[in-house]
Design goal:
The protein is an all-beta fold and 123 residues long. Helices cover 0% and strands 53% of the residues.
Amino acid sequence: QVQLEESGGGLVQAGGSLRLSCAASGPTASNFVMGWFRQAPGKERDFVAAITWSGGLTNYADSVKGRFTISRDNAKNTVVLQMNTLKPEDTAVYFCAARVGVPSPSRYTYHYWGQGTQVTVSS
């Protein structure tokens, strides 16, 4: 069973930066895809970014392109989401997720989920 644990959330002013990490444990595979999603109160859980575990292929939501960067550290079994130029509308609980295959923006195709970490951006 793959387990995911997010860290790095917090409160930041608009224009600031945060770095989220997702540590994976268990039987991770070279064909895993790691993704980040976010969910604001009363809203759907939306795709943010994804990366293949071995190939480095990435995919981003249009709303975060140019501001967020997803990367991986295979030696540490960790995926990082660097968030720059944060906006109040980025406020949400951010979830790490994993699936087998190719990066996908659909939350329904991810098999494993972390508990989430709160990101709050003040104006």
